[in-house]
Task: structure prediction
Amino acid sequence: MGNRGIAMQLRLPAMLTFVFIGAVGHAQTPIDTMTDSDLDAGESVFRVHCARCHGMQGEGGEGSNLARPRLRHANDDQQLYDLVDEGIPGTGMPGVWAISDEQRWQVTYYVRSLGQLVSGEMPGDPIAGKAIYQGKGGCPACHIVDGQGRGIGPELTLIGEQRGAEHLRVALDAPSESQPSTAGYMDFLTVRAQTDYADVEGMRINEDAFSVQIRDIAGQVHSFRKSDLVGYEKVFAHSLMPEYTAVLSEQERDDLVSYLMTLRSEQ
Amino acid sequence: MTRSIAILVLAVATSIAFADVSFQRLVNADDEPQNWLTYSGTFRSERFAALDQIDVDNVADLKVTWAYQMQPSSFSGAGLVETTPIVVDGIMYITEPPSTVTALDALTGKQIWTWSPDMPEDVLHIGFPKVNRGVAVLDDAVYVGTLDAHLVALDAATGAVRWDVEVADNKIGFALTLAPLAIDGKIIVGVSGAEAGVRGFVDAYDSATGELLWRFHTIPAPGEPGSETWQGDAWQTGGGSTWLTGSYDHDLELLYWTVGNPAPDWNGDLRPGDNLYSCSLIALDPESGELKWHFQFTPHDTHDWDANQIPILLDAEFDGADRKLVALANRNAFYYLLDRETGEFLHGNQYSRQTWAAGLDETGRPIVLPNTDPTEEGNLIWPSLQGATNWFSPSYSPPTQQFFVATRLMGAIYYKAEVEYEPGQPFLGGGEQALSGDEAAGAIRALDVLTGERQWQFDLQSPPWAGVMATAGGLVIGGSNEGNVFALDARTGDALWNFQTGGAVRSNPMSFAVDGKQRIAVTGGTTLYVFGVE
Result:
């Protein structure tokens, strides 16, 4: 048990974290004068508009883990406020226009407060997890970390700040139940396309009413006009990633999740 | 020699271009199908191209003849293009977000002039993007509504400002995003702003001077007809914005305008009653602004289902009698056919997925199902707040009596929350989480205009934000979020042609002819594409 939990680099005393946040949010904003009631109000807004993707405690899920002092797209409070207002183009993060200015600052304040939370214990040993990642798990065959591996599935270089531990555990145990999506579209939806000459199974890269682009498990990209297809199927409850319950023990999967949670930018 | 003749012809054409677009020309727009003189093509708003040079047999050869890349102003967030071009005698007038007007040579796409208003950096646009849907033309002027709620008349030849009036105060949330409607000596506009708790209205301005001629408030004050559907002071912040161009019947002398949601959007507890004339179609006397009749589609709306969709005017035999009709596919997922002389409900049916009503009663009032209002915990209802359709235009083909509508198949979890009115702030009382991506879809649907029965549908990858246009060549032109512009066979819905524009299509197609050749115009991203077969 000795190493469990050391992965998280956020174990700053709450007060120190607060000072750090204060230094980041240097510009004068309404947050400077906010109170506990604003924090409560911000939490209410967060539950309605944010928790579905970011988790009830901001621990991450389909959306990024927000329970950390530095957010990749928001260097200061004003940027976080703007991001809540406008969203992040090209990602699943929409702008939340249906709230007032005050509520937007309150939820900004609440999200900043999440960075002060001490994150939970990790379930396993990240050092053992790294060895499993590179060895028995065979993960680099389909994933890239720090430039190493093959890019079939999602890149995992920053996965520790993009997803929560629980989400990653589900992703290992039952990948079909934990598929990442952008603006509601599954990023790696399994599709099967049939032409008169071939059957192709792979992950949908893009699709519109007239065409579909598919990456097969060997990494090859196929582009079809739908009018040329004799069959086309979207297989929602399916993932091309294997279920690791059949590959790794419970302990090994805990270790692997713990390693994945160390993959972050703030080291 | 030939070249100098061509130049001479062009010079003549150009001198005609900036001349009179009289009211009579607008009334008789059918007589000049090479032009597109109003937002929806004619006062009847069919968005039907009477040109048939591009048809089911040659549409596969449709190609880009020119493109114009807009220059969205330095505003952050500017860039959604919802304009419908107007074409008058070889000159095209478009708007670029947020409120720029540009005149282009319709033959080549080369710019003639462009005009942008001085806009405050902190201009409010609560509940909608920084968009503009186009201009109106009348006589020798071009009229545009601006995001900061001004109405401006520009000289059609140069873009110089003739007059500029403030329609309403943007600082409390009013904005103009619609294309104005020009009728006889009057410019008619409506306002956006219900999400900020404004009290909506329709205005008429003198086209020559900008003088306000009349104003009709869509939310009645105490003592006025309809005020019995409100309690207390709720009417003062009751919404009912009027943000889409209406239709006009010159023979009946009636103006048809649609009214948006009551405010606050999702918390109906703060405004008991039917909340007239929110979510309604109203018929106004264009001389006085007097209300002649109304029909409310969604009484006491709690889902933000504005009725701001295009009312299409048509004459047809209905139940054995010749009737003057108005057809509208509503955001609430029902299709309606009314008598446009009286407002009498004649027919209605569901045309898109919905889970909030058991149907319509004999007066057209929805039979609302229990437990369909927003709640604090969230309540999943179809359609989403963006509706089964929205502002983007439907189309009506008179020769085949078909009604085409781009429909959104999308649900949302609706939330209710406490809210207090503050000037210039969102006044919503809740929120929504729409089911997006693979949980949502879209379709182009063809309906029999008299029965509302679906004839076919063409599936889209996602809920669309682009309208449709039927043509005399037997086509239905449409667009998708994924950047496709396409032509469908109006009889079957089969796709006959498509083109990838590289950006989301969020506007309505239109058609015109220049140099004797039919063109089809539609935007993708911030680029305007003009297509032709030669």
